[in-house]
Design goal:
Number of helices: 5
Distance between the termini: 41 Å
Structural class: alpha+beta
Radius of gyration: 20 Å
CATH architecture of the largest domain: Roll
CATH topology of the largest domain: PH-domain like
Number of domains: 2
């Protein structure tokens, strides 16, 4: 069974003592019932309406990759390419669902999932296109980072609340994978 925590030992955020799994589960349930300081609703992910040109480019890139895979005799890769293109096209057409995010004195609840302050490490704000985002680095293997879209809530409000519990980074923290993905997005635009 996969482990989602980087450490199997859970330390209470306020008391500094090791807590058991049962105590942790009770704490998560208490966080759901705790008084909410601030809440807002936002889409699960950033959605951008795609043009016909986008779908044409995705199809052409996929066709070139499929022809190259066939030329090299990698027939299993053809199936993988087709599956990836199918997922890309479905996600480009499907509007994201709207979920609720809450912050209380025990942690963050995003889409019904509880993240206690012990699970969280640091946070920062970023902007992608017109969308403002709150990014929270976690101490978990999955998800290692929470990306929450800010719709009608100010960054200042969140900063005042989160700074009491988490370390704040002035600038976005980019890993090597983030840098690679941004470079690929700039070089291979599909719109």
């Amino acid at each position: 069974m996969p482990r989602f925590y980087k450490n199997l030992i859970h330390v209470d955020h306020h008391e500094g003592r090791v807590i058991s799994k049962d105590e942790l589960d009770a704490k998560r349930q208490a966080a759901v019932d705790a008084k909410t300081i601030v809440s807002w609703k936002s889409p699960v992910h950033i959605f951008k309406q795609r043009s016909k040109k986008y779908f044409t480019k995705v199809t052409l890139y996929a066709l070139v990759a499929i022809l190259a895979a066939i030329a090299f005799g990698e027939f299993a890769l053809v199936g993988v390419i087709i599956a990836v293109v199918f997922v890309v096209l479905v996600l480009a057409n499907a509007a994201p669902e709207i979920i609720e995010h809450k912050i209380n004195n025990m942690g963050i609840i995003s889409g019904g999932k509880v993240f206690l302050w012990e699970d969280l490490d640091s946070f920062w704000f970023d902007k992608r296109g017109d969308e403002r985002m709150l990014l929270v680095q976690t101490n978990l293997h999955f998800p290692s980072r929470l990306i929450i879209i800010l719709t009608n809530i100010s960054e200042r409000t969140l900063l005042d609340i989160l700074e009491k519990h988490l370390h704040y980074h002035q600038a976005p923290v980019h890993t090597l994978l983030d840098k690679w993905s941004h470079t690929l997005q700039r070089r291979f635009t599909l719109d």
